[in-house]
Amino acid sequence: REAYPGDVFYLHSRLLERAAKLNDKLGAGSLTALPIIEIHEGDLTTYIPTNVISITDGQIYLTADLFNAGIRPAINAGVSVSRVGGDAQIKAMKADEVAKTMRLDLARYRDVAAFAQFGSDLDASTQQQLRRGDRLVELLKQQQYEPMPVERQIASIFCGSNGYLDDLDLHDLARFESEFLVYMDQNYNDVLEEIAETGDLSDELIERLHTAAKNFKNIFDTTESDA
User: Fold this and answer.
1) What is the pTM of this model?
2) What is the DSSP letter of 94?
3) Which of 4, 76, 153, 164 could form a disulfide with 61 if both were Cys (CB 3.0 to 4.6 A apart)?
4) CB of 22 closer than 8 Å to CB of 29
5) In whole angstroms, what is the distance from residue 82 CA to residue 206 CA?
6) Rounded to an integer, what distance in angstroms lies between the CA atom of residue 95 and that of residue 85?
């Protein structure tokens, strides 16, 4: 196929089989393989990508369009998949109030955003979907070398998924998130600690997150960035 040698699948699998979890006799530890494939013209169905995808446990699909639009990391949520999936997430992250439907929501948002470029009249629900999607995308942007503990991720995504960011300007979101997390540390640190300790999101914690988001939004100064 495509002039590649007939044994190219064997060559790929032999290379990736070097990834392993070692037993104690061999020194323990693990080796993780992250094959990086260049996609030509956005076509994921060519021989080499499909070959490697069939071997690995999923893929992260990065696109130049998203990168050039300032979305970093430039992950296409609609095409990126994982066989591990939600098993790698704590229960709190998979809650309805946090990120349970985020992947599908972002994929739908991309489709609607592409359609909206044609300038057609959009109904109120579609405009709301675009507005929510814009803010979720902005919320998910992450600076290099700045990992975030999962409990703080949950607090931030909770605000986006529950509409607390919908009426904010996009240029205010980064400051809102930063100041909200400081507010959580100062006033609701026990909530963050319980999420980190239990990995779950009880009804009481959900209610307290709603209270924290509402209270902080009431004191958040949207005029500061305009000054």
Assistant:
1) 0.81
2) T
3) 76
4) yes
5) 28
6) 14
How far is the C-alpha of 183 from the C-alpha of 22, rounded, in Å?
44
Please give the Cα distance from 43 to 113 (Å, whole number).
21
Q: Which residues pair with 62 in a beta bridge?
A: 75
SS3 assignment, position 167:
coil
Give average pLDDT by consecutive 10-residue segment, the chain, 227 residues.
76 87 89 90 88 89 91 88 84 95 88 79 88 94 91 97 95 96 98 97 97 97 64
**Catalytic-labelled residue, pool 83, 108, 132, 135:** 83
Q: What is the pLDDT of residues 172-191, one digit of tens each?
A: 999 999 999 999 999 999 99
- As a whole number of angstroms, the distance between CA 113 and CA 120 comes to 11
Are the beta carbons of 78 and 62 closer than 8 angstroms? no
The whole-angstrom separation of Cα 190 and Cα 172 is: 27
Q: What is the Cα 125 distance to its own chain's centre?
A: 23
Domain boundaries, the chain: 89-227
Tokens of 48: 């080499």
Is 83 considered catalytic here? yes
CB neighbours (10 Å) of residue 193?
A: 11
Could you give the CA distance from residue 217 to residue 165 in angstroms, rounded to a whole number? Answer: 9
CB half-sphere exposure, 25, CA atoms < 13 A: 0
> At residue 95, what is the residue type?
A
Can you spell out the DSSP letters for 58-79? EE--B-HHHHHTT-SS-B-TTT
Chain segment 47-57, per-residue pLDDT in tens: 889 989 988 88
